[in-house]
């Protein structure tokens, strides 16, 4: 009987994102609280003689189908790390907006590592998977966890965050119709000598430099705030804007008032 595994790849929000400076290796030192949310891609994997990736969904055309896709990168990394030559037929149903600061590609990579580790019976433990994740992308280690995490370093230092009502309820996510490459966001932070907020403030240090280039972000934030959202800010490297809601009903009311926005709930840590 054919074995089929399915995993959801959850988008993330950054409750805060502080940039502490540029590192000698070219990356930036960060301190961020990442929370996975209910908006998710879906990954289906089956045994196959070689590695194949197919992409479907309304956003399928927005992601690369070949070796540059982080699903393929993660699968290759796992096969090399585990010393196996197995293949897989991977189907990705793409629902998370691309290059939006929501970690969609990283979520897909994390889900691939977890699904293929099981399908191929690699038996790699959490630490081994984390080491592979760090090499794939800075957000991948955080999204391996499956719940709220505090992330430091360049993304490799991940620790479980408490289930705090301050971030584990409902949010509204407002993607915008343009992309902000992560590298550009951090380069603009460098160029502007942007300030870092204190770690006690739930702010995003990238919002000021990215927003200076894209005033649409501030306009979107104003729309969410006017509709009743709290703690409105840019998410990750942008351009998506997020706002906190007081309940599911409140989130849905905000989403109805702001076209294009999506009500989402935080995903709890696995038991």
Structure description:
By secondary structure, this protein is α+β, with helices and mostly antiparallel strands. The protein has two domains: 4-160, Ribosomal Protein S5, domain 2; 170-265, GHMP kinase, C-terminal domain (Alpha-Beta Plaits). Helices cover 31% and strands 30% of the residues. It is built from eight helices and ten strands. The protein has helices at 70-82, 104-119, 126-136, 140-145, 182-192, 207-213, 216-226, 248-257; strands spanning 4-22, 28-48, 51-56, 87-93, 149-153, 157-160, 170-174, 230-234, 241-245, 262-265. A hairpin with a 3-residue loop joins strand 5 (149-153) and strand 6. The model has no long low-confidence stretch (mean pLDDT 92).
Radius of gyration: 18 Å
Number of helices: 8
CATH class of the largest domain: Alpha Beta
Q: Name the beta content range.
A: 25-35%
Helical proportion? Answer: 25-40%
End-to-end span in angstroms? Answer: 30 Å
Instruction: Kindly report the CATH topology of the largest domain.
Output: Ribosomal Protein S5, domain 2
Q: How would you classify the helix and strand content by structural class?
A: alpha+beta
Q: Care to count the β-strands? A: 10
Shape summary? globular
The tally of structural domains comes to 2
Main sheet attributes: strand count, strand direction, barrel closure: 6 strands, mixed
The chain-level mean pLDDT equals 92
- Low-pLDDT runs of 5+ residues are none
